[in-house]
């Protein structure tokens, strides 16, 4: 009997070790440590004489110190073993992404751009125009009534019906140029189906003629890009030379990875508990005043950057904050849209909503300031499925705050 028991324990131990090995292997194969000089971003003609920036300038650190970002120690990221000296971690996508699948936006082949502005009749413009003139009341999705004579024009970020967003954005007609944006995100895990995604997102966009350059970042649950449904640090970019765009550090001429253990594609291990602890991360992208590269930071820690040679030399002409969800594969369409944020509509109760606090942008003189509530407008593309609530200034710690989300469904 004792011998039988020992055999059983030994067998169970082998099974457990096998499972652990498979789990470890799965985590290991998600990233690859590569020479910092040989990563994809630097394998582009424009990068031939590029000098790699390994740390933020003093001027950029000074900018970041003026913001209310939390410190790196408050961030709970899983699997942060360092790559060997001289190497950096590069996340390997779930599938071998092609140009058609590298980003969910499937743009028409002719006369289009990421932030395509379509001409509409005077009546449509009137119905879609909303400008907020008061500081005391929050802007909510409920304010987008067809009866509101001051409705703003639909921003048409994406013209496809399978993509949905709930955002606060700067006005289209502004002449301002921004040198960065940042926010404090709380981390959620919306339940999405295969080939769907849901994000908490910041866009920095520059439009010139028919060409759009964009740097985008935040957290995302993306079943096409990643092998599971966990929220992850995620970035995306387009440039005048790459209008299809690219996620993370996958393409030449794009994002350059610097940090040895924190990287786009890394999992946020702890998510929010509704009504309980809020797990947050402070993310920022700002143009370094010295190098002119666009630097991604968590708190004040540099993670990587987009080189000045290919990205928004004139600054960003538009800044968006909010939620973005949809289908990432048009070949397998779905009639049900994914949830956004917590999966519930936004409320004033920040412990039960997906939020972005401390909304800031960087002015043309590299000053970091709270977003001006008189220079932004809110928009939701489908109020039946999603909502947005711009709470404006909440308190000293939260400052300008946005909540958004929704259950999705038949949108």
UniProtKB/TrEMBL annotation:
<protein>
    <submittedName>
        <fullName>Uncharacterized protein LOC104760279</fullName>
    </submittedName>
</protein>
<feature type="signal peptide">
    <location>
        <begin position="1"/>
        <end position="21"/>
    </location>
</feature>
<dbReference type="InterPro" id="IPR025521">
    <property type="entry name" value="Neprosin_propep"/>
</dbReference>
<feature type="domain" description="Neprosin PEP catalytic">
    <location>
        <begin position="158"/>
        <end position="411"/>
    </location>
</feature>
<feature type="region of interest" description="Disordered">
    <location>
        <begin position="84"/>
        <end position="136"/>
    </location>
</feature>
<dbReference type="Pfam" id="PF14365">
    <property type="entry name" value="Neprosin_AP"/>
</dbReference>
<keyword id="KW-0732">Signal</keyword>
<dbReference type="InterPro" id="IPR053168">
    <property type="entry name" value="Glutamic_endopeptidase"/>
</dbReference>
<dbReference type="Pfam" id="PF03080">
    <property type="entry name" value="Neprosin"/>
</dbReference>
<feature type="compositionally biased region" description="Basic residues">
    <location>
        <begin position="116"/>
        <end position="136"/>
    </location>
</feature>
<dbReference type="InterPro" id="IPR004314">
    <property type="entry name" value="Neprosin"/>
</dbReference>
């Amino acid at each position: 009997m004792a011998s039988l028991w020992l055999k059983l324990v030994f067998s169970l131990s082998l099974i457990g070790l096998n499972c652990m090995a498979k789990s470890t292997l799965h985590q290991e194969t998600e990233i690859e440590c590569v020479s910092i000089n040989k990563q994809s971003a630097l394998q582009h003609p424009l990068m031939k004489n590029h000098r790699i920036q390994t740390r933020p300038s003093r001027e950029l650190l000074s900018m970041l110190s003026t913001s209310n970002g939390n410190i790196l120690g408050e961030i709970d990221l899983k699997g942060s073993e360092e790559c060997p000296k001289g190497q950096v971690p590069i996340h390997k996508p779930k599938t071998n992404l092609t140009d058609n699948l590298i980003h969910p936006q499937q743009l028409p082949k002719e006369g289009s751009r990421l932030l395509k502005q379509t001409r509409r009749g005077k009546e449509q413009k009137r119905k879609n125009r909303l400008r907020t003139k008061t500081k005391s009341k929050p802007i909510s999705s409920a304010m987008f009534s067809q009866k509101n004579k001051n409705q703003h024009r639909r921003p048409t970020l994406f013209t496809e019906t399978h993509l949905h967003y709930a955002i606060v954005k700067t006005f289209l007609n502004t002449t301002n140029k921004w040198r960065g944006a940042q926010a404090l995100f709380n981390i959620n895990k919306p339940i999405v189906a295969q080939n769907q995604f849901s994000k908490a997102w910041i866009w920095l966009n520059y439009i010139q003629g028919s060409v759009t350059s964009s740097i985008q970042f935040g957290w995302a649950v993306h079943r096409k890009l990643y092998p599971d449904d966990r929220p992850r640090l995620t970035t995306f970019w387009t440039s005048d030379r790459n209008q299809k765009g690219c996620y993370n550090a996958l393409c030449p001429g794009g994002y350059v990875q610097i940090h040895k253990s924190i990287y786009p594609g890394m999992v946020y291990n702890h998510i929010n508990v509704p009504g309980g602890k809020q797990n947050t991360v402070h993310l920022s992208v700002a143009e370094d005043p010295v190098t002119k590269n666009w630097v991604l930071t968590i708190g004040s820690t540099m993670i990587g950057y987009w080189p000045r040679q290919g990205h928004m030399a004139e600054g960003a002409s538009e800044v968006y904050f909010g939620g973005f969800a949809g289908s990432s594969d048009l070949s397998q369409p779905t009639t049900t849209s994914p949830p956004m944020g917590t999966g519930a509509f936004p409320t004033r109760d920040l412990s039960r909503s997906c939020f972005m606090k401390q909304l800031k942008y960087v002015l043309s003189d590299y000053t970091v300031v709270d977003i001006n509530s008189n220079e932004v407008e809110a928009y939701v593309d489908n109020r039946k499925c999603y909502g947005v609530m711009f709470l404006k200034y909440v308190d000293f710690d939260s400052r300008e705050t946005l909540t958004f989300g929704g259950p999705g469904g038949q949108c």
